[in-house]
Amino acid sequence: MAAGVKLLAAPGAVQPQLPAQLLPCRVLHDGPAPVAAFLRVQPGSGGELWASFRGRRLGGRELPLPPGYRGVLLREGEPPPGDEGDPQDQWVKVMGTFDVITEWGADAVPSPTAGVALALQWGPLACAIHAPVSDDSDEEAEP
Amino acid sequence: MALARSERDPAAAGPFGSAVPPLCRRRPCALGVDEAGRGPVLGPMVYGICYCPVEKMEELEALGVADSKTLSEAERERRFGLLEAAGDVLGWALHVLPPDHISACMQQRAKYNLNELSQDTAVGLIQFALDSGVQVAEVFVDTVGPAEKYEAKLRQRFPGLGVTVRPKADALFPVVSAASICAKVARDRAVKNWSFVEDLGDIDRDYGSGYPNDPKTKEWLRRNLEPVFGFPRLVRFSWGTARELLQRGGVPVKWADEDPAEDPTAPPSLLSYFARASPRRPPHRFFQERRLRPLAEL
């Protein structure tokens, strides 16, 4: 079964807020890219966002993460010296955080009933499903 | 068809023009349509119209605004000045199609090719003149594609107007020559004053002619190729030259609607040999619809 994921905490460090952009394509590149320089976002007339990637029009929507959730950018790291935990554990460092995902669709804004917006519904639903039920609930089941 | 009005992004602005001379509201006018910047891989494509009362055609000819292809940029500016000065008999309008709008139209899922885009823009400008109160009686158009088909399309769209579509119309009809000058001047200015939306510091503007077969232009493209993002929006990504350079010098990018879902000839991943023979049961539809699956490790 899977081992744990452990956090390499740097005490006192403040992780920067990062903009998280979800593109409607796969960029086969692993590394830095001049996102801020090239991905220039213009607001539309109805609150939507517009941008362009490689000449393709992108329509965007900001999706705040559900309450109680936070986005983190992780980077793999080495176990701290002297660690005697499970060798299968994965060690990660938090490089940045985000509270909002900007979801981009090809040619137009993604439908609100598709994509990441839909997936994010799971968070609050999971909380509701797994939250403890109060003992002094006043509700009684209708016969 | 281009994006619906309600979805249209700020990049694709509409037609704009000079004030309509009062005479053009009262007297039947001839209207010429031409474009500039169709072939280049950089900058906007501009459609222009110029109109004046039919009875004033000699005055327009006297301005000497014939065939503008052979003129220098400075000479074109000078002639545009003459047209502006004749504002009591002559009006003009333009529609600037930004390069990224061209790229977007030609690359979007419901492909909108350059010919269709061009013809629709011309139609839009003629309608713009009509809506502005110009008494358009005759339209003269430089052709994009086969002349008869285009002429028939315009006749159908504008049943009350005389329509003449010809190749090299800018050499045949003064109103088209005038429209050609307006379009070319607008295009020259747009390229010269191009404001890079990208934050790239001091980009050199040594583009050459902007045509894809110009070695200077090709060099500029190579110099300004960023592996992930490609080029600035000044470049028409839908042009063959740009696509080739991006293919060779850029990182691969896969779009869901362009690339096939699975390559059946690719060897299966090693992990697939260790996968469970069959799942106990498939995940609930809620998770399938949302493409959620449990992640045991990062």
TrEMBL record, chain A:
Pfam family, one: RNase_H2_suC
InterPro entries named among the record's database cross-references: RNase_H2_subunit_C, RNase_H2_suC
Protein name: Ribonuclease H2 subunit C
Organism in which the protein naturally occurs: Grus japonensis (Japanese crane)
Domain of life, source organism: Eukaryota
UniProtKB/TrEMBL annotation, chain B:
Lineage: Eukaryota, Metazoa, Chordata, Craniata, Vertebrata
Binding, a divalent metal cation: D34, E35, D142
Domain RNase H type-2: 28-251
UniProt-listed Pfam families: RNase_HII
Needed co-factor(s): Mn(2+); Mg(2+)
GO CC terms, sorted: ribonuclease H2 complex
Keyword Amino-acid biosynthesis: no
Catalytic EC class: hydrolase
Reactions catalysed according to its record: Endonucleolytic cleavage to 5'-phosphomonoester
Protein name: Ribonuclease
EC number: 3.1.26.4
Gene Ontology molecular function terms on file: metal ion binding; RNA binding; RNA-DNA hybrid ribonuclease activity
Top-level lineage group: Eukaryota
Organism this protein belongs to: Grus japonensis
UniProt keywords, alphabetically: Endonuclease, Hydrolase, Metal-binding, Nuclease
Assembly: The RNase H2 complex is a heterotrimer composed of the catalytic subunit RNASEH2A and the non-catalytic subunits RNASEH2B and RNASEH2C.
